[in-house]
Amino acid sequence: MTRPAKPGKPGKPAKPGAAPDAAPDRPPGAAAAPRPPDDAPLTARAMRLARAGKRRPAAKAAANPLREGLRLERMPDPALFVLFGATGDLAHRKVVPALFQLWRTNLLPHEFSVVAIGRRPYTDEAFRAELRASLDQFSRVLPIETAVWDAFAERITYHRGDFGDEALYDGLATRLDELDAKRGTGGNRCYYLATQPSAFAPIIGGLGRAGLDHEHHGGGWRRIVVEKPFGRDLTSAIRLNREVGKVFRESQVYRIDHYLGKETVRNILVFRFGNGIFEPIWNRRYVDHVQITVAESIGVEKRGSFYEEAGASRDFLQNHLMQLLALVAMEPPTTFGADALRDEKVKVLRAIEPMTPADAAANVVRGQYGPGWVAGEPVAGYRKEPDVDPESETETYIGARLFVDDWRWAGVPFYLRAGKRLPKRATEIAVQFKQVPHALFKGSNADPEANLLALRIQPDEGILLRFAAKVPGLGVDVRSVNMDFTYGSAFSVDSPDAYETLILDALLGDASLFTRSDEVEKAWGIVTPVLDAWADEPPPAFPNYAAGSWGPEAADALLLGDGRRWRRI
Ligand code: BG6
To answer: How many angstroms from the chain centroid is the CA of residue 118?
Structure first.
C-alpha cells in the first residue's frame, strides 16, 4: 500500500453539526454547479497541478520526465450514484473504495451523492460506519483522512428494499427526485448493479416500470453499470441482453469486465498502436504462438457457492481471457471511440470458430485442485472449501487452444490458461516469435532462443523483450538476454485501481472499456459449446492437480503435442 506524502484534500470538509441528510453547502433545489473555486480547481490542468502540489513534492515530480503528459482528467457531471447490493462484498471491497479514492483526488464533482440500496436494515450513520471500517481494510491509499471521509460520508444515504419488490422502485423514484433537488445532482443517475446476477433482471425491470430509466423526465442522463457475470451461457446472456434492452438503450449500458480497467491492459493498445515497430511483425509471419496466463495462488476463498455455479470457464475464460485475447489480436480501430474499438474486438471473437464436441475434447482441458502447498503453507483441496460440494465436478483451472481464423492470425495458436491455487499470482501475455530462418550460431554453447515479448499485466507490471546477445569473450557464444521495462521504475505514480478507472469512465459516459451486448454474446458463443460438450461427457477424475502446482498434466500435454511448452513465469 502506498501512503501519500500528505493527505489529499478533496471536497469541503463537513460543517460541524450539519444534518447528515443535507447537502453540506448548497441550498436545496439550487442548480448544479462546478465545485467552488476555494474548494477545488476548475480546470483539469489546474487540478493536476494542485494534486501534484498536494500529494508529492514538486522536485520529485520534476525529477522523472516520464511522468509528464499523464492522463488528463475530466470532471464528471453532478450525479446520483445508485448502488444496488451496497451491503455486499463487492461494494465494500471495490466499488466504495474506488468512489472514495476518486473523491479524495478531486475527480468527483461537489454535487455527487451515493444512494446505497440493500436488503438489511441500516440507519445512514450505521451504514456509513461499516463503509468506513471497510475502507481501512480495502482502500489502496491509507490512512483515511477524517475530514475527507466526513465530507464524502455526508453524501451517502442508505435505502432499504428488496430487489424483487415493486414498491422499492416507486419509493426510490420519490427518494431520488428529492435527493436530486436537495443535492443539485441535475437528474443524472448512474445505477450500479453490484448484486448477485439473479437480481439483475428484477432490478432492471423494476427501474423500467417506475420510469427510472427515462432521460427526458426531469432531464439528466441515466446509465446502468452491470457487473459480471453477464449470463451463464449464450442463451441466458441473450435473454439478459433482451431484458436490459427493453428498458435501456445500448448506449446507456456499461457491462463490466474489470480487467479492461487495469492500467496494463489499457496499455496493450498503446503499446501496439502507439509504436511503429511492433505492428508490422504482429502477425502469423513472425509470431509462432501467443500464451495468455491468468494465474492465482488464492483458492475460492469465501466464494464457494458462487464458484460452484461458475467454474473457471465462466469466471475467467468467457470474460477476462477473451478480452485479453481480443486486445492482442484485434486490428487497429479507426478511432479510440467506444464503438470503433468494440467493433474490432467483436471481429476477433467472430473469427474464433465455435467448437464441436470433438474440438472441445482436443483443445480444452479442465482441472480441479486437490490439497497441496502454496507459499510454504498447506492448503485444502477445492472439495474441502466452504460451501463446495464434497464431490464437486466444478473446474478451478481451464486451459485452451484457440485459433483466430483471419488474415493476420491464420494458423497461429493462442494458448489460454487460468487457474486458482497455482504457485503464484501472475497475469501475462507472451507473444512468442518464430526462430530465425537460418541457424548461423550453431557452434554456440546454447541455442539462442527465439524472441519473446511478455506483457506483464500483474504483478510486477511491465514489458519484457527477449533477444539474443553475444556473450563477451573471444569466441562466438550466444545467449538470450532481457530488455525489461517496469512501470514502477519508469513512472513514479501509482496506477489507479481498475474500478476507479471504470467508475470514472461510466460517470463520464465513456463506454470504451465496457463490453457491448454483441461482444458478450460472441464470447459466450465460444464458451457455451465447450460447456455443452462437457455436460455430455462422464465427470472428470477430479482433483487432477495439486494446489501449488501449475495445473493438470493435460494442460502440459496440450502444448507438448504441438512441440511447445507453457512459459515458466
Ligand atoms: C474476478 C473473479 O472476476 O477476478 C475472481 O471472479 C478473481 O475469481 C478476480 O479472483 C481476479 O481479479 P484480479 O484483479 O485480482 O486479477
So the answer is: 24
